[in-house]
């Protein structure tokens, strides 16, 4: 084993030990009940909330998918960053404070399906079951997408097999998630968010310096292909809408908005928003600049880059000392693992509260619920590994499908459940089903335009899904009567508490 590999492995080993250590610490700190395991006792501070939400949001997509998109298509990729920034800001503004208050008012709801059922007094359990199915379905795909990033990392940078990367990445995540629950996930997310931020600042700075500065890099990219500098190159209005529509997804991502349910107080939300948005903007700019500099660097060094999504890995290998390279590779793992752990916990929480307890053991004691949650973490992880077994899977494509599914199924439902008291259970069911089915049909239905272009290539599936879901919510709610008196009272209580 050469010195570079040894140095890299030392840094990665240290990172893995820290993550597992945090999981063990959290195990002894949390209460052994469902609220402690699944929401950390609703006691997260604003900084942990913000970086935990950001780290679990971005995943390996931030360090692999987005730089790869900038590398391949140029500055048109900026439209995604603009849409994401706007969506995240509005999520903090509209959803965060209301969801924190309303989930506690609505019978102390612990999971998103739990909130939907309590918000709409759904005695039939239809809302809970359908939303749990959507979470389990799309999150399994989403988790697989994150694991693809881990496999690529080990294959490209450590000369290990893709499958080894999958199992090692999943194994470490399962260790700290299994024992430490939500508190461990949030604490590790905070540390991982700091690592990711450092990486997204230092890598593009060193890359641009090596290339002679921003001006020289821009000239080099222009010489390669001038269209890479055109923000509207090859873009129609529909294309720009599709890229910016990524921001719509934030309102319906359970692994992100669950952080809002766990924050210590609604009064902490503005502080969390300022921290979270600052972290996000810096990280997105760093990711885009990494891809931009990468195009010039590959040309300068005359290397062959088969997969644009590995450009960050190229920089870690050739521009940094082995120990620093290991730290930067840990940043990719941080991005990947923070998302996987959050997704595993959300799915296991849903399987425990919305499947096991609802259908098999309604009187399950708290300790048994926690045990079922831990078993669920293992099961979902194994299934996701099997789905991620194809090394040719695109991180960006897999993430975009799951992101669209959640955004359309839950986004309008979450927004209107928190802002429109007239919304009822029937409207909620209709909106969720219509949103999810629209995305599935749009992506996998095999429909094309007259010129053969697939629908999802023409317009991102979240757009029609979000629109049709919103229409279904309004139409069905208006046609099927108003909410019950108990629901009206809860909504009024939520509004009153927000004003305090």
From TrEMBL:
It is found in: Cell inner membrane; Cell membrane. Keywords: Amino-acid transport, Cell inner membrane, Cell membrane, Ion transport, Membrane, Sodium, Sodium transport, Symport, Transmembrane, Transmembrane helix, Transport. Its main location: membrane. The keyword Cell inner membrane applies. InterPro entries: Na/Glc_symporter_sf (IPR038377), Na/Pro_symporter (IPR011851), Na/solute_symporter (IPR001734), Na/solute_symporter_CS (IPR018212), Sodium:Solute_Symporter (IPR050277). The chain crosses the membrane at residues 6-28, 76-95, 126-145, 165-185, 197-217, 237-258, 279-298, 318-351, 371-389, 401-420, 427-445, 457-479. It catalyses: L-proline(in) + Na(+)(in) = L-proline(out) + Na(+)(out). The keyword Transport applies. It is a multi-pass membrane protein. NCBIfam families: Na_Pro_sym, sss. Belongs to the sodium:solute symporter (SSF) (TC 2.A.21) family. Catalyzes the sodium-dependent uptake of extracellular L-proline. PANTHER family: SODIUM/PROLINE SYMPORTER-RELATED, SODIUM_PROLINE SYMPORTER. This is Sodium/proline symporter. It comes from Psychrobacter aestuarii. The gene is putP.
């Amino acid at each position: 084993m050469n010195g570079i590999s040894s140095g890299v492995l030392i840094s990665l080993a240290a990172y893995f030990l820290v993550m597992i250590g945090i999981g063990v610490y959290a195990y002894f700190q949390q209460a052994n009940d469902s609220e402690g395991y699944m929401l950390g006792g609703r006691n997260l501070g604003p900084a942990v909330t913000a970086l935990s939400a950001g780290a679990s949001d971005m995943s390996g997509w931030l360090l692999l998918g987005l730089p790869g998109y900038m590398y391949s298509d140029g500055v048109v990729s900026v439209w995604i960053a603009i849409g994401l920034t706007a969506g995240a800001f509005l999520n903090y503004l509209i959803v965060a404070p209301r969801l924190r208050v309303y989930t506690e008012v609505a019978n102390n709801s612990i999971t998103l399906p739990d909130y939907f059922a309590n918000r709409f007094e759904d005695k039939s359990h239809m809302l809970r079951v359908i939303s749990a199915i959507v979470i389990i379905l799309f999150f399994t795909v989403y988790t697989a997408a994150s694991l693809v990033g881990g496999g690529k990392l080990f294959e490209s940078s450590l000369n290990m097999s893709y499958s080894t990367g999958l199992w090692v990445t999943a194994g470490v995540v399962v260790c700290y998630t299994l024992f430490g629950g939500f508190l461990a996930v949030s604490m590790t997310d905070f540390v991982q968010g700091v690592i990711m931020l450092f990486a997204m600042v230092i890598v593009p700075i060193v890359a641009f310096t090596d290339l002679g500065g921003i001006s020289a890099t821009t000239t080099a990219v222009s010489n390669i292909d001038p269209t890479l500098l055109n923000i509207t190159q090859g873009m129609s209005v529909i294309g720009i809408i599709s890229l910016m529509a990524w921001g719509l997804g934030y309102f319906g991502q359970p692994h992100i908005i669950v952080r809002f349910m766990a924050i210590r107080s609604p009064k902490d939300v503005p502080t969390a928003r300022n921290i979270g948005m600052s972290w996000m903007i810096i990280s997105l700019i760093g990711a885009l600049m990494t891809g931009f500099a990468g195009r010039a660097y590959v040309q300068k060094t005359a290397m062959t880059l088969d997969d644009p999504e590995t450009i960050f890995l190229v920089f870690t290998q050739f521009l940094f000392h082995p120990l620093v390279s290991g730290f930067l590779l840990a940043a990719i793992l941080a991005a990947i693992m923070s998302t996987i752990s959050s997704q595993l916990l959300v799915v296991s929480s849903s399987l425990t509260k919305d499947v096991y307890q609802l259908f098999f053991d309604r009187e399950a004691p708290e300790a048994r619920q926690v045990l079922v949650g831990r078993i669920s973490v293992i099961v979902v992880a194994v299934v996701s590994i099997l789905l991620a077994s194809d090394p040719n899977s695109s991180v960006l494509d897999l993430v975009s499908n799951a992101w669209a599914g959640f955004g359309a199924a839950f986004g309008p439902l979450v927004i209107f459940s928190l802002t429109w008291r007239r919304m009822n259970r029937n409207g909620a069911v209709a909106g969720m089903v219509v949103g999810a089915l629209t995305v599935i049909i749009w992506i996998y239905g095999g429909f094309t335009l007259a010129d053969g272009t697939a629908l999802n290539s023409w317009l991102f599936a979240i757009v029609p899904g979000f629109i049709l879901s919103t229409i279904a919510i309004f139409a069905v709610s208006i046609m099927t009567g108003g909410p019950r008196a108990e629901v009206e009272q809860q909504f009024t209580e939520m509004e009153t508490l927000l004003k305090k």
